[in-house]
Amino acid sequence: MTTAAMSASGSVPRARGSIPRTIYIVWWRDVIRFWRDRARLLASLAQPLLYLVIFGSGLSSALGGGLGAAGGVSYTQFIYPGVISMSVLFSAIFGGMSIVWDREFGFMKELLVAPISRSAVAIGKTLGSATQSLVQGVILLVLAPFVGVTFTVATFLELLGLMVVLAFGLSAFGVAIASRMKSMQGFQVVMNFLMMPMFFLSGALFPLVGLPLWMTVLTRLDPASYGIDPIRRTILGQAAERTAMTIGDQIVPIGIEALIVLAFGLAMLAFAARSFQHRD
To answer: N or C: which end of the chain has fewer CB within 10 A?
Structure first.
């Protein structure tokens, strides 16, 4: 019996001491693949830019150039944080596609039968996807002057931290779903079914105030809402307080929102790690 087969059958203990190295290798491999695929990077940035230009220009004109509920900021400025978060969301969730891709071409099987921790594979994949989505989100920050938004270095660092949390939470979600999928087609169908409602209910394109009760409940159950709202409040400052996330009549503090997204990401990562442990 080979070492790989023995490891798969449980005869050889997995090398726990190699967990950090395994995480690094899996993460670095995904980052390298992303960096070499420049066409994917450009294409993934095109959709958020279209949303910003088309929705921003078209609906801003329809709304008379401003969004009263948002304290007078233009609609383009209002959706700008949502567009950044959209780029992070789409890239993070679809980052899990690499797992299905690797499974179809046999690379994932080699990882799962190797004498390494399967949990480390889940962590490495999550961090790799989060890194990719974070890079795309940061690139969109350069558009701030073109939409009339300015922020300080301190604000940029706060934004970076919030984007890291959002990227991690959504990447873990994508990896958790991918850990249960066996085909690329099945993954794409499931993710499109989950991703679009998650995006549209997140408040990226409209304020989460004055909504029907059923929609209010759905927006509060959407984890992306707790990632996009603090990014908008950080970028727009006091102008976004009128549309801030509330539970009851209380505005949810930014720190609590970040903790909710982080807890969601950790739960999804634990689910993904458990799924990898039980994969054949």
So the answer is: C
Summarize pLDDT for 109-123 with one digit per residue, the tens: 777 667 677 788 889
214 contact partners, CB below 8 Å, separation of at least 6: none
Q: Are 136 and 44 in contact (CB under 8 A)?
A: yes
Mean pLDDT of 231-256: 85
Q: Backbone dihedral region of 203: left (phi > 0), alpha (psi from -120 to 50 degrees) or beta?
A: left
- Across residues 141-147, what is the average pLDDT? 83
Query: How big is the CA angle at 86 (ends 85 and 87), to the nearest 5 degrees?
Result: 90
Q: Is the pTM of this model over 0.70?
A: yes
Confidence band (pLDDT; 50, 70, 90) for 76?
confident
Q: What is the 3-state secondary structure (H, E, C) of the chain?
A: CCHHHHHHHCCCCCEHHHHHHHHHHHHHHHHHHHHHCHHHHHHHHHHHHHHHHHHHHHHHHHCCCCCHHHCCCCHHHHHHHHHHHHHHHHHHHHCCHHHHHHHHCCHHHHHHHCCECHHHHHHHHHHHHHHHHHHHHHHHHHHHHHHCCCCCHHHHHHHHHHHHHHHHHHHHHHHHHHCCCCCHHHHHHHHHHHHHHHHHCCCCCCCCCCCCHHHHHHHHHCCCHHHHHHHHHHHHHHHHHHHCCEECCEECCHHHHHHHHHHHHHHHHHHHHHHHHCCC
